[in-house]
Amino acid sequence: MSAPDPALPMDIVREVGIVLARRALDNPWIDHLWSPHGVLFPVPDCAAGELLSEEGDVRLVFAGAATVQLYVPETANYRDNLSTGTPLLWIAARTNEGGTPDFLRVTADPTEGEAWHEAGSEIVATVVMPDDIAAWIAAFVDAFHVEQVFQKRQRDRSERKARGFGHKPGGGQETGL
Q: Hey, how many other C-beta atoms are within 10 angstroms of the C-beta on 112?
């Protein structure tokens, strides 16, 4: 892979529109459930909360815009995501007191997306990545990815001896080490 041309700055941020599905439930504790449904690129000219479509008990709602930002150290993760055949975006949304999602995040990094599940207080799911976003990420990976060769660390045996590892406190040699 060749080094990027410094005269052509690489765009590392893209704004996408987030579509959430609101499904009606027959449940004594909650009456609906929100889940990420898709990503729109470019972002449509409509207000957050606008109803896009309704079919049966499912409403598709434009939740607003979110930013996909790429980082050079994560190019291996982006490459792995693209190589799956169906690249994904991870969307996280947090609901406000009224029960509507209002805090949105999106990433193309599988490790970051999976880490969002740990908080437990957010709605996190994957959606299929739009082709334009996949092409943009592939160009970023081509421009900036540097393969890291695995280097197995070797212990410094003299340091172990200097600290007395492998010897009994009385000066005798331990067996089994």
A: 15
